Amino acid sequence: xxxxxxxxxxxxxxxxxxxxxxxxxxxxxxxxxxxxxxxxxxxxxxxxxxxxxxxxxxxxxxxxxxxxxxxxxxxxxxxxxxxxxxxxxxxxxxxxxxxxxxxxxxxxxxxxxxxxxxxxxxxxxxxxxxxxxxxxxxxxxxxxxxxxxxxxxxxxxxxxxxxxxxxxxxxxxxxxxxxxxxxxxxxxxxxxxxxxxxxxxxxxxxxxxx
Length: 210
What we know:
Blueprint: H1 9-16, E1 22-28, E2 37-43, H2 61-74, E3 77-83, H3 85-91, H4 93-106, E4 114-118, E5 128-132, H5 140-163, H6 169-172, H7 178-187
Parallel strand pairs: 1-4, 4-5
Antiparallel strand pairs: 1-2, 2-3
Helix pairs in contact: 2-5, 3-4
């Protein structure tokens, strides 16, 4: 049996309460050592089903790319925003993630009337919201946002690799793999790295992309 698909159960319950434009929002790159943190907000069209939506981490790269194209072409609205490494260093990764999520939501026109946010409530929103723990595995709208955020960020990391190929950003996307840590030990940190966000040592902490 394959990974569980996200559903529209939460969205359907909110529509029964009278909400019409329900946005899901999620981020990508929170645990990376380099590059921006990206967030996406998506308002799915309730009349257009998108098969196969699930947490982006449970999908192959090819499946994410395919679903990305379907989501951007069929959604009622979508937007992507980010916070760069300098901003992450100034306000910390948690606040930068929430800032990117808020930016993505406020780019939706017209604004959504309800937001389903993965994991954490987002301060400063002008509409009702609900934080959903593990939302990218439960809500199809949040899952769609996770796919847009992940694909957009991966493309940005490939562009960073093309500008500076020393670190292999196109392969590990800035996460603390052995290859990345070895490159940091050899070359030091680049302008793309987050100075405030690094492993306790360059060799002991490993994490996989999310």
